[in-house]
Amino acid sequence: xxxxxxxxxxxxxxxxxxxxxxxxxxxxxxxxxxxxxxxxxxxxxxxxxxxxxxxxxxxxxxxxxxxxxxxxxxxxxxxxxxxxxxxxxxxxxxxxxxxxxxxxxxxxxxxxxxxxxxxxxxxxxxxxxxxxxxxxxxxxxxxxxxxxxxxxxxxxxxxxxxxxxxxxxxxxxxxxxxxxxxxxxxxxxxxxxxxxxxxxxxxxxxxxxxxxxxxxxxxxxxxxxxxxxxxxxxxxxxxxxxxxxxxxxxxxxxxxxxxxxxxxxxxxxxxxxxxxxxxxxxxxxxxxxxxxxxxxxxxxxxxxxxxxxxxxxxxxxxxxxxxxxxxxxxxxxxxxxxxxxxxxxxxxxxxxxxxxxxxxxxxxxxxxxxxxxxxxxxxxxxxxxxxxxxxxxx
Length: 394
Ligand SMILES: *Cc1c(COP(=O)(O)O)cnc(C)c1O
Prior knowledge:
- By secondary structure, the protein is α/β, with parallel strands linked by helices.
- About 40% of the residues lie in helices and about 15% in strands.
- The strands form four sheets. The protein has a seven-stranded mixed β-sheet with strand order 2-10-9-8-5-3-4, sandwiched between helices.
- A hairpin with a 7-residue loop joins strand 13 and strand 14.
- Helix 10 packs parallel to helix 12.
- The N and C termini lie far apart (about 45 Å).
- The site of pyridoxal-5'-phosphate has 13 residues, from helix 3.
């Protein structure tokens, strides 16, 4: 019985007996990305100051952000960047409307609660994106709202929210829009020359396919410049981080030097793949291979194809009495594939990520491994039982 996946092609991760991570980050990285970390940098060294400046420029370029925007890196996981974004860019006397369709939207509400920012939520079901009509109506009904927050791809389910339409609605209503683009930036095109956003936050270890440890916020400079003293936390003060970087190119506190070098290397790989458009095409191919393959085994996706992002896919648990998620997980892991448990409010599910340094053939091997594991478990079909009608989760 095979206990490792077939050897990866050149430039893919998951080699040398390491598992392929079909998870939304940390994820499978290229050997070259990890190799870029193999030296030390002094944080005040000219070489590291140049590395920081280069990564900031490259991240702005990925989103086609012109002179109106700046990129401020933030140490930590993605949530640190979101917490810095909301805590700094939503004024202390402002009011944030959060569009909630899953765990990451709910986390934004928790961030506001801790930071003492007035906020309200507009909640949709987990399988239903918010609409521009609903946002417009809510902004008319709630004049106190100054800022709106949207999760671009809600990783809880893998749904792609209609960023352009929501951005237009928020801008027409004269409010600022802040986006959590954590699981889309670098993998799904975002054109800041066309989108009226105030800011977006993302991290290195999702579609940029680098190692975890740094996030960043791309923000309109004119707005950021007005946010001195706003932040609720010293280390998460995006304005102070930005003024420090602008003054001497240095980070205020210990920078994640190797992590930044890995990100610079990962950006080379992204360029080599044809940029965001090339990666977007690869993710769709991987996602199609996954969805078609598991549907062929009887599985059903939570989402309709029209709202599925090519980032992570939620499958409903099979109804077969022989099904057991932990056994499925463990046996796939023994074959070299790590999947992700579901986090749905209403039914048992599991998730499979499409992002990371591997190609569609790796997903074909994953589907074969899943078929073999189902046979071993005696699960005749991946078909789920009936599900209660999708409803807004509370
Ligand atoms: C991953 C992710 C985050 C940040 O999660 P961390 O565990 O802090 O990196 C935030 N929002 C979304 C949509 C994500 O997918």
